[in-house]
Amino acid sequence: MIGGFQSCFNRGNFCRRCCINYEDRNLPLPLSHIKVRTVVDHDKTVQEIKSNPNKSSLMGVVGESPLHELIGFHPILSLPGDLMHDFIEGVCPIIIMSLLKQASSMRLITYGRKQFLFTVTIWISVIIV
User: Fold this and answer.
1) pTM to 2 decimal places
2) DSSP state of 87
3) Is the pLDDT of residue 68 over 80?
4) CA geometry: angle 47, 50, 55, nearest 5 deg
């Protein structure tokens, strides 16, 4: 709600970073085919909602952010990244692999290479599911 986005993520345009809709979320679309939200598009959507009180939500936006008067704040630029994109873009497995390698180099975990890779695979599959 801080960004003025819908708080229910099981329908419509649920992502605050891009304009993918709920029905297409599992399709193997390349990221280049998904429209990214821009400041201009977001501001137009907010103005459209403000000018038409009958619209409760449009493109996942429910209204203006309560923080809109803060200098330098904009919901598109100032809010943290979306967890869904971290999973889809493969950031989480890379971070986990890096953390496990660091833990191994610090001797916090001491597995043989095969066991280490097996453990990483298990951890990544558990996190993704």
Assistant:
1) 0.59
2) H
3) yes
4) 110
Mean of all residue pLDDT scores within the chain: 76
How many domains in the chain?
2
- Cα–Cα distance measured from residue 123 to residue 86, given in angstroms and rounded to the nearest whole number: 16
The residue assigned the tokens 């994109």 is 85
Strand partners for 64: none
Claim to verify: residue 62 and residue 103 sit in the same structural domain = no
Q: Which domain holds residue 109?
A: 90-129
Four-residue CA torsion sign, 82, 60, 43, 32: positive
Token couple for 30 = 């390349």
- What tokens were used for 89? 């873009």
Q: Which residue has the tokens 């891009």?
A: 18
CA distances to 17, 60, 80, 112, 123 from 118, rounded to whole Å, are: 33, 40, 32, 10, 9
Question: How far out from the chain centre does Cα 40 lie?
Answer: 20
Task: Assess if residue 52 is contained within a domain.
Answer: yes
The verdict on 32 and 61 lying in the same domain is: yes
77-103: burial string, b at 16+ Cβ within 10 Å, e else: eebeeeebeeebeeeebeeeeeebeee
